[in-house]
Design goal:
This protein is α/β, with parallel strands linked by helices. It has two domains: 21-265, Type I PLP-dependent aspartate aminotransferase-like (Major domain) (Aspartate Aminotransferase, domain 2, 3-Layer(aba) Sandwich); 268-386, Aspartate Aminotransferase, domain 1. The protein is 42% helix and 15% strand. It is built from 13 helices and 14 strands. The strands form four sheets. Strands 2-10-9-8-5-3-4 form a seven-stranded mixed beta sheet, with helices on both faces. The chain has a three-stranded antiparallel beta sheet with strand order 11-14-13, with helices on one face. A hairpin with a 4-residue loop joins strand 6 (143-144) and strand 7. The radius of gyration is 21 Å and the shape is globular. It starts with 10 loop residues before the first strand and ends with a helix. The protein binds pyridoxal-5'-phosphate. Pyridoxal-5'-phosphate is lined by residues 16, 68-70, 73, 95, 141, 143, 145, 170, 172-173, 193, 202. Residues 16, 68-70, 73, 95, 141, 143, 145, 170, 172-173, 193, 202 line the site of pyridoxal-5'-phosphate (PLP).
Length: 388
């Protein structure tokens, strides 16, 4: 193989993709079978069962959409929102804005209720907007990867109940890292991505939809505008009939099964606890280095940490040095937060004490290189003490 063409091995502590464990990489490299091979059909059922397990749902309509998280978003929006529908979208970050734009493209009458990047949604404002427009769907992002905010679900569910609206939640960065109860919280439409807390390469978007949502799909006035993402057609392949719709990404589905099995071996509760513990250790370290988190402690994601860039620091130079010297990727700020924060992801297997210590040490080194003053080793010390 041409060495020059080989991609380097990095520690991926950004907003995704996260690192992929050997077992999942091996699963991708298994010999290919056909997309209608009996062994693959069995694997599809297994993946669907595992997805129902991780989403905590009994929804029949549960499948991995072929495509990245954004394909899951389009699938959710284009199937369950149609022309003329009143829709309320809570936008407290970049990805909420993306949902709103898709809903507009689907022809909906979109009302946006926005919150500053770094804060949760204002439930009162959402409620008022819903009272005004009587929405068919209320959409929001559970884990805003652009800001590091976790949005509580139940208060929004209550607004939906008052209007008989469907609840659509983007759970790309919470699935497998934060508690998520699709059935108990009555989330009607929920999707995720493989490359965040599931530690798979990007390429599939797990999605689940309630019977109530499917009822809306079956009684649409118009056809779903996307043929590829039309769930009623996809159900021909992923439902009982297993008839050809499009060639499933076979290797990726095999990888997803392996990744979900790893989550199952971890146990969901233990896995979420681990994300919480290492998030708290990282925060202790960041604060010991004299830096500040961007989000109020009550709403912080455990999977994605936004750290404010200290005054006078060239944040891009820090990221460049982290990559070149430490082989370590962290994310830049996105949208309103561009240049203002770093985004440190601790997702799935990457949520470990080792990675917390590495990123704190590396960050300190890069900051000191720029003349930042802090107690040497204070971050690493505080993080390891937080874990004892
Ligand atoms: C990453 C992400 C997406 C988009 O997923 P892609 O895989 O990049 O298409 C959507 N929503 C949220 C909250 C995300 O973090």
């Amino acid at each position: 193989m041409n060495e020059g063409a080989r991609l380097p091995e990095r520690l991926l502590l950004g907003p995704g993709p996260s690192n992929v464990p050997v077992r999942v990489r091996e699963a991708i490299s298994r010999p290919l079978v056909g997309h209608l091979d009996p062994e693959f059909l069995k694997l599809m059922s297994e993946v669907q069962d595992l997805l129902r397990w991780i989403f905590r749902t009994d929804n029949h309509m549960t499948l991995p959409v072929s495509g990245t998280g954004t394909a899951g978003m389009e699938c959710a929006v284009y199937n369950f929102i149609e022309e003329g529908d009143a829709v309320v979208v809570g936008v407290h970050g970049y990805f909420g804005g993306r949902i709103a734009e898709m809903a507009r493209r689907a022809g909906a009458e979109v009302t946006v209720v926005s919150a500053p990047f770094g804060e949760p949604l204002d439930v009162g404002a959402l409620s008022q907007a819903a009272d005004r427009v009587k929405p068919k769907v209320i959409a929001f992002v559970h884990a805003e990867t652009s800001t590091g905010v976790l949005q509580p679900v139940q208060p929004i569910r209550q607004i939906c109940d008052r209007h008989g609206a469907l609840l659509l939640a983007d759970c790309v960065t919470s699935l497998g890292g934060h508690p998520l109860e699709v059935d108990e919280w009555e989330i009607d439409i929920c999707y995720s991505g493989t490359q965040k807390c599931l530690n798979c390469p990007p390429g599939l978007a797990p999605l689940t939809a309630s019977e109530k949502a499917m009822q809306k799909l079956r009684t649409r006035r118009s056809k779903v505008r996307s043929w590829y993402l039309d769930l009623s057609l996809l159900d021909g392949y992923w439902g009982e009939h297993r008839s050809y719709h499009h060639t499933a990404p076979i290797a990726m589905n095999n990888a997803l099964r392996e990744a979900l099995l790893i989550v199952k071996e971890d146990g969901l509760e233990a896995r979420c606890e681990r994300h919480k513990r290492h998030h708290l250790a990282l925060v202790a370290g960041i604060e010991a280095l004299g830096m500040r988190m961007h989000v109020d402690p009550n709403y912080r994601l455990w999977t994605l940490n936004t750290v404010q860039v200290p005054p006078g620091i060239d944040e891009a130079a820090v990221r460049a040095r982290l990559l070149s010297k430490f082989n370590l990727e962290v994310g830049a700020g996105l949208g309103d937060l561009a240049g203002k924060v770093w985004r440190i992801g601790l997702m799935g297997i990457n949520s470990s004490l080792k990675n917390v210590l590495i990123v704190l040490h590396a960050l300190e080194e890069c900051l000191r290189k720029q003349g930042y003053s802090c107690t040497p080793g204070a971050g690493v010390r505080a993080a390891s003490e937080a874990l004892t």
